[in-house]
Amino acid sequence: MTSAGKNFKILRRRCERIARRLPLPRPYDTRRLCALLAAERGRPIRLLELPGEDEMFGAWLATDDADLIFYKPETTPPHQDHIILHELSHVICGHQTAAAPQDQRHLIFPSLSPELVRSMLRRSTYWSEEEQEAELLASLIWLRSCKESGAGATGASTVRRVDAMLAWSKDNAVACDPARLG
């Protein structure tokens, strides 16, 4: 198995442990999950539409008082849920931005005071470990919610396909190398 394959296997196991421990609402609703986690953490999570016309689909901005999760309103409801889950996964995993948040906040919110922003992450690439972890955890949360909701025949088929896609074994271990993607 390649080094990338081993790293992904470790990452997947970590994400599976986190996803198993989450208190999923019944019936499942992404916005209710955010409310449950906010209550559990004792810190508000606010879901807000992402302003602007750029290519960014989501962002997480942490202030001293709350976590703000932004999503693109022009996408489909399932895509909005995935964007929210991706950004929520950054919150759950405790990811931190590499650059100073004050240096990034002007990209979305030019009038926002730098003193208010404690941390900010926005999707720009999927090659960092934090982005891969957030994307994988978001997918595993969605997968668990589908399995536990008793999805019908079509839903069960989709769940099996996603589960197979996320499966990782020695037989299908391939390095995630940007150079190999063309």
Put the structure in a nutshell:
With 182 residues, this protein is α+β, with helices and mostly antiparallel strands. The protein contains 6 helices and 4 strands, in the order ααβββααβαα.
Provide a descriptive summary of the structure in words.
It comes from Microtetraspora malaysiensis. By secondary structure, this protein is of the alpha+beta class. The chain has a single domain, classed as Arc Repressor Mutant, subunit A (Orthogonal Bundle), CATH 1.10.10. It has helices at 3-21, 30-41, 77-93, 101-104, 129-148, 153-166; strands at 45-49, 58-63, 67-71, 117-122. It has a four-stranded mixed β-sheet with strand order 1-3-2-4. Helix 3 (77-93) packs across helix 5 (129-148) and helix 5 packs antiparallel against helix 6 (153-166). The longest helix is centred in the last third of the chain and has 20 residues, at 129-148. It is globular. Residues 99-107, 117-121 and 168-182 have low confidence and may be disordered.
